[in-house]
Amino acid sequence: MLDIIRNKKAFICDMDGVIYHGSKLLDGVAEFLNWIKVNDKKFLFLTNSSERSPRQLHQKLLDMGLDVSENCFMTSAIATALFISQQMPGARVYAVAAHGLSEALLECGCVLTDKNPDYVVLGETKEYNYDKLEKAIRLVLGGARLIGTNPDASGPGEGGIVPACKSLMAPIELATGRLAYYIGKPNPLIMRNSLKKLDAQREDTAIIGDRMDTDIIAGIESEITTVLVLSGITKREEVDNFPYRPSIILNGVGDIAK
Predict the structure, then answer these.
(1) 50-88 pLDDT, tens digit each
(2) Would the pLDDT of 188 be above 80?
């Protein structure tokens, strides 16, 4: 199976738990990216986090010693902005968001406002507070559509597990009785956006991730070969807890380059 993975023309790689933990580059990543370059493979970093823009992600990797073009990133923020702009060009959006999501929405022609918005959009942000929560609830009850950048309940942080989008969204859903539509993995929308950006066919592509409930199921539902790496959140003994399996399990991305 490893030879099949190595023969793929394109790779979609998760970031947290695959490329780095916090500000620490994981073993084998530099070798994997060098293998990608030497073998003329296409690749894209895909993250469910909506906090950082491609420019910020480029800088984060640069600080770790990796020079990766800004064009090599797809985030749930970008996918969310693309979805809204396709559904309603020039949509008015109230965003409870960090810089990455706000920038993506503006670049797609959305208008950021808290006056009669068409959408309330929530992503991970340290600016989350009661006042913004109260306003979001009021706007949704007033008719705004509710969007979440990703369905992750938690994610890795510098000091351990931190709440992610779905946990932050829960009070809004409970208070309004409305369920958000989530754009990030495993939604096939973000996978199609990634394939388009790569200019690759699904049968020629593999997705590499550390989470069964987002990365691996996203690949399965999009009919893309799946690689689970054990360098992140999932332990080998936990795989059998799920009704589906990855195509292959590796210790880390460096195994592909060996």
Answers:
(1) 999 999 999 999 999 999 999 999 999 999 999 999 999
(2) yes
Active site (annotated) includes residue 14: yes
Q: Which of 3, 14, 213, 240 is catalytic?
A: 14
**CATH, range 2-48+185-257:** 3.40.50.1000
DSSP of the chain: -HHHHHT-SEEEE--BTTTEETTEEPTTHHHHHHHHHHTT-EEEEEES--SS-HHHHHHHHHHTT----GGGEEEHHHHHHHHHHHHSTT-EEEEE--HHHHHHHHHTT-EE-SSS-SEEEE---TT--HHHHHHHHHHHHTT-EEEES---SEEEETTEEEE-HHHHHHHHHHHH--PPEE-STTSHHHHHHHHHHHT--GGGEEEEES-IIIIIHHHHHTT-EEEEETTSS--GGGGGGSSS--SEEES-THHHH-
Task: Locate CATH 3.40.50.1000 in the chain.
Answer: 2-48+185-257, 87-182
Distance CA 224, CA 217 (A): 10
* Phi and psi at residue 162, to the nearest 5°: -130, 155
Lowest model confidence (mean pLDDT) among 52-56, 88-92, 151-155: 151-155
Q: Given pLDDT bands bounded at 50, 70 and 90, which one contains residue 157?
A: low
Question: What pLDDT is recorded for position 154?
Answer: 84
pTM of the model: 0.94
Q: Is 16 known to be catalytic?
A: yes
Active-site residue among 3, 16, 27, 199?
A: 16
Q: Which CATH class is domain 87-182?
A: alpha beta
